Amino acid sequence: MDEREDWHLTEALHHEQGRGDPFAAAVRATRMSMVITDPNLPDNPIVFANDAFQRLSGYDRSEIIGRNCRFMQGPHTDLDSIAQIREAVGKGTDISIDILNYRKDGTSFWNGLYLSPVRNDDGTIRFFFASQLDVTDRVDVQSRMAREKSRVEAEVTRRVAELRDSLDAQRLLLHEVDHRVKNNMTMIGSILRLQLREAADSDTAEMLRAMMTRIDALATVHRHLYQADDVTRFDIGSYAVNLASDLTQSRADCDIRIRADLGRAEVPAGQAAAIGLIVNEILTHMIRPENAEAGQVFDISSRTTPARVELSIGFGPAEMAVRGADPVYSPSGVNEQIISRLAAQTRTRVAWSRTDQGSIQVTVVIDKENS
Questions:
Q1: The pTM is what?
Q2: Is the pLDDT of residue 15 over 50?
Q3: Which of 10, 96, 122, 250 has minimal Cβ neighbours within 10 Å of its Cβ?
Q4: 203-370 maps to which CATH number?
């Protein structure tokens, strides 16, 4: 079939378009590569190819007409893409796909193929229409982007692995520090207990017990820090409850319950030891033997506001009966000195008061700008 007969095919392709050369001329002249195949002939051969297809493929019309389009496939054409095209032809459906094709000179290009059946009035497929577009540049850009994405993902994976290894190393270091600090605390506690057994008088024994309590409080601070998910922050609310529990359980003469209402109340780890000792002095002052009567309750609450972190500790009878006492029930002596100095060091405010019902109320306030 020569070029003079091309217009007959375009006329048959869709007869609603009308007869005559203008449509045929447009198909032949367009820069879009186009072919028409006839599925009613053996092997669905090409029966029309415009000039743009000849330029794209490098083949002359005489080398194209009568051949199946598979002659443009090559060694690296994707078999799955071929199968998809074959399935579309078999089912008589449209398909749009990028497929690697080869020119006559052997060079490859990415073909943006669109294939569609052309049916007559009764729905029978008369032809297949196919357009081709060289989309090599687009596919190359996509391939480069995919390679760059893979490279970045590999780099991210590598860096994450390095960070994980670094965190594991830091975790091992923290465990080692934790182990050594606990050993040191245990050794100091053992020495104090030996001295306590050798104490010649009750005053010396009481001082040694107070010192042991402070060492235990520091050990509790340490335990809270190194068992937390974030070792840079210290939760003073949970610490106060834990310490109060330890102190009351360690004294056989105590019948004290603990009620807690804890919100998030964290301070920097660098302030943990000092604030922990402040809380210890407050609690130990509250549960002195003269206060260890039955039915006493610790009410501990904590919260964080936009401006500060607050810890509130109340101590008194469960039924809140009125008790005669001084208006302010604050510590004196060594307890007072320790609280005062550590509060100044951490810029913490400690306020003592007595409620009308007779309970002691202490508020510890740490400003956010200081924490």
A1: 0.52
A2: no
A3: 122
A4: 3.30.565.10
